[in-house]
Every structure is written in structure tokens, then in C-alpha cells.
């Protein structure tokens, strides 16, 4: 009977080390707040393609205006 306790998956958050209680959190590997923070950091690490396109578009427009 005691063995049944250990069949419940209890994992710790990869970020803060707190015990993860929900199934979703265990699957993610992060707690609710840490998952949001980890995701935010991932987004900040990647350059936003939209920003580059805006600058390219702006520069191209300027060049065209000068040539005309
Ligand atoms: Zn956490």
C-alpha cells in the first residue's frame, strides 16, 4: 500500500525547485508562474521578425523617395 504513494509523479520545477502539483505543470517541467517567465525569456532571446521587417520597409521607402 505504501508503494502507491510513490507512483504519483512528483517533480520539481526546473526553475525554482518547488514541487509541481498539477499534471500540466509536471508535463511542462515548470510551475505556472515559472512557465510564463521561461516563455517570456525565450521570446526575448529571439529577435522579433516583425521588427526587422518594419525597419527594412522603412529603409526601402527612404531610398525610393531619395531616388525619385
Ligand atoms: Zn517554479
Which small-molecule ligands are present, each listed once?
Answer: zinc ion
End-to-end separation in angstroms reads 84 Å
Number of strands: 2
Query: Which sheet architecture does the biggest sheet show?
Result: 2 strands, antiparallel
Report the order of strands and helices.
Answer: HEEHHH
Percent of residues in beta strands: 5-15%
Helix content: 55-70%
Number of helices: 4
Shape: rod-shaped
Please indicate the count of domains.
1
Spatial strand arrangement across the major sheet: 1-2
Summarize the structure.
The chain is built from four helices and two strands, in the order αββααα. The chain has helices at residues 3-7, 23-28, 32-45, 49-67, and strands at 11-12, 19-20.
Q: Layout of SSEs?
A:
Blueprint lengths: L2 H5 L3 E2 L6 E2 L2 H6 L3 H14 L3 H19 L1
Antiparallel strand pairs: 1-2
Bound molecules: zinc ion.
Explain what you see.
- The chain is mainly alpha-helical.
- It has one domain (3-67).
- Helix content is 65%, strand content 6%.
- It contains 4 helices and 2 strands; from the N terminus they run αββααα.
- The chain has a two-stranded antiparallel sheet with strand order 1-2.
- Strand 1 and strand 2 form a beta hairpin.
- It is rod-shaped, with a radius of gyration of 23 Å.
- The chain starts with a helix and ends with a helix.
- 6% of the residues are buried.
- Zinc ion binds at residues 13, 15-16, 18, 30-31, 34.
Keywords:
about 70 residues, two-stranded antiparallel sheet, binds zinc ion, mainly alpha
Amino acid at each position: 500500500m505504501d508503494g502507491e504513494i510513490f507512483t504519483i509523479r512528483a517533480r520539481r520545477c526546473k526553475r525554482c525547485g518547488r514541487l509541481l502539483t498539477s499534471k500540466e505543470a509536471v508535463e511542462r517541467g515548470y510551475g505556472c508562474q515559472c512557465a510564463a517567465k521561461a516563455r517570456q525569456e525565450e521570446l526575448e532571446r529571439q529577435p522579433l521578425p516583425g521588427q526587422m521587417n518594419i525597419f527594412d520597409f522603412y529603409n526601402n521607402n527612404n531610398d525610393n523617395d531619395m531616388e525619385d
